[in-house]
Amino acid sequence: MKGLFAIGGLVGATLLWTVWWPLGIIGTGVALLLVYQWFSFRAKWGMKL
Question: How far is CA 31 from CA 5, 18, 24, 48, in A?
Answer without folding.
Answer: 9, 16, 10, 23
